[in-house]
């Protein structure tokens, strides 16, 4: 994603090398799944390996889609205002897929362990998987969702600047340094792009200009 954000309209050698690596990572896990399924009989550990490879494929596909969005945005005549939303939804979809795979792996490995040769090592692996790949992912995803929802809710409570105000100001957004064609007005009377301000609210609630509270707390 950071590579796409630095794209300026020319595909450099760095971009080509990264895309080549992504293509390789996209193909190898699929090939590995086919080979492993042909060589070994299906069991719990093979299921874990296959699921890990599927997660890798989805992660790389998500990264390539986001990169394509950044590239198309650079070459587009008009900037995509909802680009940040698209990136968020793609990342969220990838995270949801990872979480669902982790839940399925947990259920299957627990069932296989209880119906097979139970041992302490297997129980320890399942417990660690349940904590790090299921519980922690669910907690992180929920916290990110609440943070984003809170930022959007508070941002929507701000007034849009009028055309007359923008003409009198004749300035740039101090976050992205791009001209203010549309802007939100904070309670401390500073002007920012709505998208820039939303990204800023993910980090902190202080105004980038004067460090006053941008909005009253919920």
Automatic annotation (TrEMBL):
Keywords: Membrane, Metal-binding, Transmembrane, Transmembrane helix, Zinc, Zinc-finger. It is a multi-pass membrane protein. Pfam families: TRC8_N, zf-RING_2. The chain crosses the membrane at residues 16-37, 44-70, 96-114. SUPFAM superfamilies: RING/U-box. Residues 173-211 form the RING-type domain. PROSITE patterns: ZF_RING_2. SMART domains: RING. It is found in: Membrane. GO terms for cellular component: endomembrane system; membrane. GO terms for molecular function: ubiquitin protein ligase activity; zinc ion binding. One of its GO terms (biological process) is ERAD pathway. It comes from the Eukaryota. PANTHER family: RING FINGER PROTEIN 145 HOMOLOG, RING ZINC FINGER PROTEIN. This is RING-type domain-containing protein.
